Amino acid sequence: QVQLVDSGGGSVQPGGSLKLSCAVSGLRISEYVMSWYRQVPRKGREWVARISVSGSDQAYANVVKGRFTISKDNHKNTASLQMNNLKPEDTAVYFCRVDSTPGYWGQGTQVTVSS
């Protein structure tokens, strides 16, 4: 059974940082692309970042480019999202996803950015 556990969310002031983690069990993330998405109430999930199977290539949504960094540790079977210079508009529930067929989602972790 595949399970993803998202963690690391919290409340920070604008300009602050958080690091989200996604612990995966039931499959080896070394074989899959991993992504992070976020969702705010009454809106669909928004793609945030993606990392390749090898981990050598990353892609980011324009709104987070230069502030967020996605990474994966294939030995620990975890993916991470380092978020710096957070803005109030980054407030959302963040979800990790294994880009397999079918895809698998974490349960989400709340990030709140406010002064």
Mind explaining what this structure looks like?
The protein is mostly beta strands and 115 residues long. Helices cover 0% and strands 50% of the residues. The protein contains no helices and 11 strands. The strands form 2 sheets. Strands 2, 4, 5, 6, 9, 10 and 11 form a 7-stranded mixed sheet that branches. It is globular and about 40 Å long. The chain starts with a strand and ends with a strand.
Using DSSP, what is the number of strands? 11
User: What general form does the structure show?
Assistant: globular
SSE order in H/E notation? Answer: EEEEEEEEEEE
**Count of helices?**
0
Quaternary state of the chains: single chain
Q: Radius of gyration from the CA trace?
A: 13 Å
Characterize the largest beta sheet: strand count, sense, and whether it forms a barrel: 7 strands, mixed
Stretches where pLDDT is under 50 for at least 5 consecutive residues are: none
The secondary structure category is mainly beta
Average pLDDT works out at 96
Strand content: over 45%
Distance between the termini: 41 Å
Helix content: under 10%
Features:
single chain; about 120 residues; mainly beta; seven-stranded mixed sheet; four-stranded antiparallel sheet; 11 strands; about 50% strand; globular
Short summary of the structure?
The chain is mainly beta. Helices cover 0% and strands 50% of the residues. It has strands spanning 3-7, 10-12, 18-25, 34-39, 46-51, 58-60, 68-73, 78-83, 92-98, 104-105, 109-113.
